[in-house]
């Protein structure tokens, strides 16, 4: 039996190609959805862009027939704009002018006509209200990745015999055959050969003594030792295994690691370590691999305009990047006891970084259309990006550019995103196994900000 899928506005605003995601079934767009899309069409952000794209797609099918009667789609489905079911009964307390209630009314009317109806919406409250009227409601799953616990973590633990471990320490350049290592399978309670992923980080343990270990990575052929874990950018010492893995990925050149993705809770030093390595490469490295650091973050108000208030672009964006300055203050004066003795001197050191063009800051919205060459690009708070934005940013990378995407999928401020649909998690899952992408997921146990930060992350 053909199913009927009724689309909410927020689904199309997130993914215009949702029109083609339901196979050979019937796709219904209530007329109120068109009204809502029309209100977004002039916006100069991703919502406006997606609204305009939906309009172009609908106009294309309008030319093929009457949308209110149904127009065939290439995948065998049927696209219809629904104008009817105005008199379907709803609870008396519900606002008849509400777009959400009108969409549910259409669903209820189609059910009364005998159709198998599914409401597809990103709005949790609308799904709850639909369920109250026995309307089956679902989230839009097409661009969803697995739940956090099942997402790619970028690392694993494996075991090897003591003899082979000793041979590895004697000749690390030789590496280890991946077939020689074992991983513990909790389901079967036994050791088995793992399926390693290219650029996956590895904690290597000796079977006879698990405290005998080494930090490695898989290059696609053999397991090899880290190359950059001994470095101390601006005196920063990685304090745990996750940070050592992250530093390794950051120091890898743009030719072999043009994309680095780090996921983890607040306090795991994602931004701090990214800045430390970036400044070290820009300011201290004789080879000068990068011209400068470009630090970006999304405006969580959906990348709306920064407004017409007086001031330069940097002055308007300054509140977004106060955290960057906090980190720079620590990096540029690493004497913990005397760091804040002269606030003026510390302020001048930070300002010099920007004055000498070692680093610039931008909102993500301004990356659109650019081609960025030989820059070390940090995208902070990347969990607030949509999958479309994440793709657009990664494809901006020109020759010699390295992109570092940071964020916590559990702390999302974007109205239409969650831990399974945000751009950071989407990029992580789609880029898994690419030889150009290195990833690491940092854990709460690796929080190094302060005792209270770690405690809050655990308790709250």
Structure description:
This protein has 460 residues and is of the alpha/beta class. The protein has three domains: 136 residues, 5'-nuclease (Rossmann fold), CATH 3.40.50.1010; 81 residues, no CATH class; 220 residues, P-loop containing nucleotide triphosphate hydrolases (Rossmann fold, 3-Layer(aba) Sandwich), CATH 3.40.50.300. The chain is built from 14 helices and 18 strands. It has a six-stranded mixed β-sheet with strand order 3-4-2-1-5-6. It has a six-stranded parallel β-sheet with strand order 15-14-16-17-13-18, sandwiched between helices. A four-stranded mixed β-sheet has the order 7-10-11-12. Helix 5 links the parallel strand 5 and strand 6. Helix 7 packs parallel to helix 8, helix 8 packs across helix 10 and helix 12 crosses helix 13.
Quick gist of this model?
This protein has 14 helices and 18 strands. It has 460 residues and is of the alpha/beta class. Helix 5 links the parallel strand 5 and strand 6.
Compile the SSE list and pairings:
Layout: E1 3-7, H1 9-14, E2 26-30, H2 31-40, H3 46-62, E3 71-72, E4 78-82, H4 99-112, E5 116-120, H5 124-132, E6 136-138, E7 155-160, H6 162-170, E8 183-185, E9 190-192, E10 201-206, E11 213-218, E12 223-225, H7 241-251, E13 259-263, H8 270-284, E14 292-297, H9 313-317, H10 322-332, H11 343-355, E15 359-363, E16 375-379, H12 387-394, E17 402-407, H13 423-431, E18 437-441, H14 451-459
The CATH architecture category of the largest domain equals 3-Layer(aba) Sandwich
Looking at the structure, what is the overall shape?
A: globular
Sheet with most strands: 6 strands, mixed
DSSP summary, beta strand count:
18
Given this structure, which CATH class of the largest domain is correct?
Answer: Alpha Beta
């Amino acid at each position: 039996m053909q199913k009927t899928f009724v689309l909410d506005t927020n689904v199309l605003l997130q993914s215009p190609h949702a029109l083609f995601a339901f196979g050979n079934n019937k796709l219904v767009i209530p007329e109120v959805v068109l009204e809502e899309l029309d209100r977004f069409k002039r916006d100069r952000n991703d919502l406006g862009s997606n609204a305009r794209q939906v309009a172009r797609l609908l106009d294309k099918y309008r030319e093929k027939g009457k949308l209110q009667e149904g127009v065939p789609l290439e995948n065998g489905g049927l696209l219809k704009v629904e104008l009817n079911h105005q008199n379907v009964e709803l609870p008396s307390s519900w606002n008849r002018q509400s777009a959400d209630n009108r969409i549910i009314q259409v669903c209820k009317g189609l059910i009364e006509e005998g159709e198998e109806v599914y409401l597809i919406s990103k709005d949790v409250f609308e799904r709850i209200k639909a369920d109250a009227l026995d309307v089956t409601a679902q989230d839009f799953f097409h661009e969803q990745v697995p739940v956090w616990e099942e997402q790619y973590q970028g690392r694993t633990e494996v075991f090897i015999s003591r003899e082979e471990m000793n041979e590895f320490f004697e000749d690390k350049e030789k590496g280890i055959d991946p077939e020689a290592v074992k991983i513990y399978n909790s389901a079967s309670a036994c050791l088995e050969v793992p399926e390693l992923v290219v650029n996956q980080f590895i904690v290597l343990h000796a079977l006879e003594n698990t405290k005998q270990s080494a930090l490695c990575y898989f290059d696609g052929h053999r397991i090899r030792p880290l190359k950059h874990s001994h470095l101390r950018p601006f005196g920063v010492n990685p304090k745990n295994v996750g940070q050592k893995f992250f530093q390794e990925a950051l120091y890898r050149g743009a030719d072999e690691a043009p994309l680095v993705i780090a996921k983890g809770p607040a306090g795991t030093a994602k931004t701090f370590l990214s800045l430390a390595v970036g400044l070290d490469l820009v300011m201290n490295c004789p080879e000068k691999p990068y011209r400068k650091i470009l630090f970006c973050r999304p405006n969580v108000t959906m990348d709306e305009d920064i407004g017409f208030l007086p001031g330069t672009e940097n002055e308007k964006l300054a509140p977004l990047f106060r955290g960057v300055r906090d980190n720079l203050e620590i990096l540029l004066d690493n004497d913990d006891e005397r760091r804040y003795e002269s606030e003026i001197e510390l302020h001048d050191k930070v300002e010099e970084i920007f004055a000498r063009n070692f680093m610039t800051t931008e909102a993500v919205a301004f990356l659109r259309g650019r081609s960025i060459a030989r820059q070390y690009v940090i995208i902070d708070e990347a969990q607030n990006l949509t999958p479309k934005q994440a793709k657009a940013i990664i494809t901006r990378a020109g020759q010699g550019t390295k992109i570092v995407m940071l964020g916590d999928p559990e702390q999302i401020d974007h109205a239409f995103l969650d831990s399974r649909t945000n751009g950071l998690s989407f990029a992580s899952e789609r880029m898994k196994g690419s030889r150009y992408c290195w990833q690491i997921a940092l854990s709460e146990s690796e929080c190094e900000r302060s005792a209270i930060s770690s405690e809050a992350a655990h308790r709250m």
